[in-house]
Amino acid sequence: MNAAKVPRPLGFAAGFAAAPLVYALVRVISMRMEPEADPSAVIWAEHSPAVTRLVVTLYVGLTVLGGAVSLASAAPRAMPRVVAPVAVAAAIAVLAQAVWAP
Asked: What pLDDT shows up at residue 14?
C-alpha cells in the first residue's frame, strides 16, 4: 500500500470521529453556563441557543478535522493508534452528555 495515500483518510477518520466529542463538550458547557428556557420561549426567540451551539461545534469540529489531517500528514504511523481512542472517547462523551445535559 502506498504510504502517501494512507494518512489523509486516517486523518479524516480521526476528525470525523472527534465530531460527536466536540458536540458533547459544547452541549455540556452551554448547559452548565446557562440552562435553556422553556421550549416555547426558545422557538419564538430571535436568537436560538441551538444555532449558536451548531455554529460553535462546526467551527471547532472543522479545526479538529484540519489538525487531524495535518497530524496524519506529519506522522502517518501514529494515526492508526489515534483513530480508535478518539472514537471511543467520542462515544463516552455522547453518552455522558445524554445523561448530564439532555
From this structure: 84
Cα 96 from Cα 102, distance rounded (Å): 9
Backbone angles phi, psi at 70, to 5 degrees: -65, -40
**CA torsion angle 89 94 19 6 (round to 10):** 40
pTM of structure: 0.68
- The single-letter DSSP state of residue 8 is H
Separation of alpha carbons 40 and 47, rounded Å: 13
Mean pLDDT split into 10-residue runs, the chain, 102 residues? 64 85 86 73 70 85 87 83 86 86 74
Q: Which domain holds residue 32?
A: 7-100
How many domains is the chain built from?
1
- The C-alpha atoms of residue 93 and residue 63 are separated, in whole angstroms, by 19
Torsion sign, CA atoms 47, 100, 85, 1: negative
